[in-house]
Amino acid sequence: MFESIRKHSKFVMILLFLLIIPSFIFVGVNQNYFTESSQTVARVDGHDITQQDWDNAHRAESDRLRAQNPTMDAKLLDSPEARYATLEKLVRDRVLAAAAAKMHLTTPDAQLVRTLREIPAIASLQKPDGSLDAEAYKALVGSQGMTPEGFEANLRRELALNQVLGSVSSTSFTTAAQLQQAMDALYQRREIQVARFDASAFAGKVQPTEAELKAFYEAHTNQFKQPEAATVEYVQLDLAAVQQGIVLSEDDLRTYYKENAARLAGPEERRASHILINAAKDLPAAEREKAKAKAEQLLAQVRKDPKSFAQVAKANSQDPGSAANGGDLGYFGREAMVKPFEEAVFKMKQGDISDVVESDFGFHIIELTGIKQPKVPSFEEMRPKLEADLKQQQAQRKFAEAAEAFSNAVYEQSESLKPVAEKFKLSIHKVENVTREPAPDAQGPLANKRFLEALFSADSLENKRNTDAVELAPSNLVAGRVLSYAPAHTQSMDEVGEKLKQLYVAHQSAELAKQEGKAKMAEWKAKPEAAQLPAAVEVGRDQARDLPREVLDAALRAPTNALPAWEGVDLGNAGYAVIKVNRIAQRPAQDAQVLEQQKAQFTQWSSMAEVMAYYEQLKKTFKVQIKVPRPQ
Predict the structure, then answer these.
(1) pLDDT per residue over 191-206, tens digit each?
(2) Rounded to the nearest 5°, which phi and psi values hold at 153?
(3) Which residues, in sequence order, are CB contacts of 242 under 8 Å at separation 6+?
(4) pTM for this one?
(5) CATH classification number, 2-173+607-626, choose in 3.30.420.40, 1.20.140.160, 1.20.1730.10, 1.10.4030.10
(6) What pLDDT sits at residue 538?
């Protein structure tokens, strides 16, 4: 099993990513859309995935990722590896959809509602009465290019697909013998001796001549190349900047409190249990009547003995998401459930059992088990939040107007950023050594590819004019200008100066250390009794002894069929190390807490392997063919 995980580690990570982070964007397939000119790139269960499908899916995925991370490099998103990952995801979706259809897997309404309520962005849209702000919800999913109906349908579908592999991962278990064997191998200890040959110890032996330095410079000119760089300044307009100019009066705050106190306190929530008898809305009338009769029979039973509600729900409810819990749906607000269900719940008194309630999903019997009434805080308690919320709202309303004025100002007065900075009370940020590509530690605007492209445009570099306003993210604009510019060049020997000698000495010192280390290892292997080695230490993956990672890895990889074993390790500019592996040491006993942690870790690995194997089997079952080669 461990060999399988090792060989397929890349696949396992991709598969886990797909399981842990569900994608709520699914590109639909219309089989009639295919044409002879649309090349087939993959085939699943007899159905083609065309080049057009692949392009559409990758465009949607790229748009989604860019919306989440505006600074993401477009080249990365359109790399061969990224495109192939999209194709693999399309194949994965088709395989799981085929499996879900074959197993008749669906997502119950209650499970969909619970999942929606667990999405923070949606949970934050509840109104004072507990209902969902429908317009805000529509705008939220619309920002992803979807309608609420489409979003919910895709989420329902995604939850059904996740059941296919989830059913395998949730059943994995580990025996004590498996755990012991795996952990003994993973955390094996070895007794070793390590001799270090540090490059710094050989530095005194390196006395370079001018000719040697020149030859080294000419052989390593790539080390002295300097990318094009600029000194720039920029100003940034965001909601925080707009808020600075907003002054709230006492009347504004008190009016806002009166209008929103209930909402700020939170919505009323109710807890209910239900018994569901499934009856889809398109079911024949006779079948629905049969289901309703069954519900009426169960209603009579629980009204006769209300305390038996949970027991009856466990035995009879056809909602798999709640039946095992006695029908309990937990607390929820308005618009979290389908309309007929919600209307019934919010008319009931605690302890009531409803009449049979009909919905598109069937017939419900509802018991109201709890009511949470929010406490309305005082004005003074809410004052900080009132100020923050009201300023935020006013800033959002004013930002569009401010953004237009900001864009006009940087364009019309393009020789300087001072006018726009003074107008909006913004700070001008000056940064040196800015490059065309974002630096590894770049933050804010200088990590944004589009802004850097604007700064390094021909007009900006040649004329030193302000850039146009660039949108970093919603309600976040930046404009900048180049103060000075240096093109890419290779530093001369004179410019490099003392650094050239330092690099040469470091390079030659490391070479001398390696030569000495290799010579000593050959000598010690031939005459072990003459080996001059430090005292032995025990090491393992959980006991590194401050050894460099390369040394520890070599010590644990060394073959142990004939001990002692010798290994030489090139430490780059740090020098060289010689390792002697004396014996395999017994692993110390572990306390109960550590063993539990290790068991959980191994169970996760085992689950990953089982999921991987099951998915590979599904690919065979549904005859997956990917006709595009994987990027090398």
Answers:
(1) 999 999 999 999 999 9
(2) -65, -40
(3) 395, 398, 399, 402
(4) 0.47
(5) 1.10.4030.10
(6) 93
